[in-house]
């Protein structure tokens, strides 16, 4: 019964991934179910991205101009926008961080990890403290304040704001801060890690808005895409 349940979940998530066709979402090719006696092994066959995770690229020695960083941010935003604009009930990634984005040749950023995506209704029942712990630097102040806070698009935009900060700064978020100290700084002090001095003004403002303490002040992913496209256009002039 457990294998059948896993098989059903696996098929549903495979269908979810197959639904998305975007140059900024990792392409899904198929699933493989291999049974040997009582043991069942499940594989997902997905697009290979040459440069690895976004986190890996940002922590590497590879030089990245502001134009490249803005384009990477725009790619990432377009992938998330495609996810948020599904025709079904609002779809969320729910596990958004810089390891969930992959980078292909030409520095094209693609959203991956959609096997962990859930609808808003199911994720509200499945947020656990341990998950928030793993995702602590990406958890919104509201999630840190209340473990039962309903995960929504504003929470996801906060997480994405941390990813944008990583692209701009090329640093690991809250690297040398314990979970307890992070919780206090973000919730009580409304602390935001500083951006580089040479960060373009429009980009700085956008990243700070995504990391706003008040969820109402955070832009939608559609607005983020538009603003990043405008910043890119300005840099190209």
From TrEMBL:
<keyword id="KW-0067">ATP-binding</keyword>
<dbReference type="Pfam" id="PF07714">
    <property type="entry name" value="PK_Tyr_Ser-Thr"/>
</dbReference>
<feature type="domain" description="Protein kinase">
    <location>
        <begin position="1"/>
        <end position="235"/>
    </location>
</feature>
<dbReference type="InterPro" id="IPR000719">
    <property type="entry name" value="Prot_kinase_dom"/>
</dbReference>
<keyword id="KW-0547">Nucleotide-binding</keyword>
<protein>
    <submittedName>
        <fullName>Mixed lineage kinase domain-like protein</fullName>
    </submittedName>
</protein>
<dbReference type="InterPro" id="IPR011009">
    <property type="entry name" value="Kinase-like_dom_sf"/>
</dbReference>
<dbReference type="GO" id="GO:0004672">
    <property type="term" value="F:protein kinase activity"/>
</dbReference>
<dbReference type="InterPro" id="IPR051681">
    <property type="entry name" value="Ser/Thr_Kinases-Pseudokinases"/>
</dbReference>
<dbReference type="GO" id="GO:0097527">
    <property type="term" value="P:necroptotic signaling pathway"/>
</dbReference>
<dbReference type="InterPro" id="IPR001245">
    <property type="entry name" value="Ser-Thr/Tyr_kinase_cat_dom"/>
</dbReference>
<keyword id="KW-0808">Transferase</keyword>
<dbReference type="GO" id="GO:0005524">
    <property type="term" value="F:ATP binding"/>
</dbReference>
<keyword id="KW-0418">Kinase</keyword>
């Amino acid at each position: 019964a457990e294998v059948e349940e896993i098989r059903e979940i696996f098929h549903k998530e495979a269908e979810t991934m197959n639904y998305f066709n975007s140059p900024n979402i990792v392409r899904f090719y198929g699933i493989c179910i291999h049974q040997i006696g009582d043991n069942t092994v499940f594989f997902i066959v997905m697009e290979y991205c040459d440069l690895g995770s976004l986190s890996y690229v940002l922590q590497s020695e590879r030089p990245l101009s502001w134009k490249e960083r803005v384009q990477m941010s725009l790619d990432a935003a377009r992938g998330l926008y495609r996810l948020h604009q599904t025709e079904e009930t609002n779809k969320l990634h729910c596990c958004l961080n810089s390891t969930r984005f992959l980078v292909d040749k030409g520095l094209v950023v693609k959203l991956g990890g959609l096997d962990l995506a859930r609808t808003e209704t199911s994720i509200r029942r499945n947020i656990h403290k341990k998950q928030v712990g793993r995702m602590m630097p990406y958890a919104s102040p509201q999630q840190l304040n209340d473990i039962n806070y309903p995960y929504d698009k504003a929470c996801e935009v906060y997480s994405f704001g941390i990813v944008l900060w990583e692209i701009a700064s090329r640093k690991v978020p809250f690297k040398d801060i314990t979970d307890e100290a992070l919780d206090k700084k973000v919730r009580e002090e409304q602390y935001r890690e500083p951006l580089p001095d040479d960060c373009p003004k429009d980009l700085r403002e956008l990243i700070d808005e995504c990391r706003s303490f008040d969820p109402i002040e955070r832009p939608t992913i559609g607005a983020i895409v538009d603003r990043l496209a405008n910043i890119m256009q300005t840099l190209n002039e």
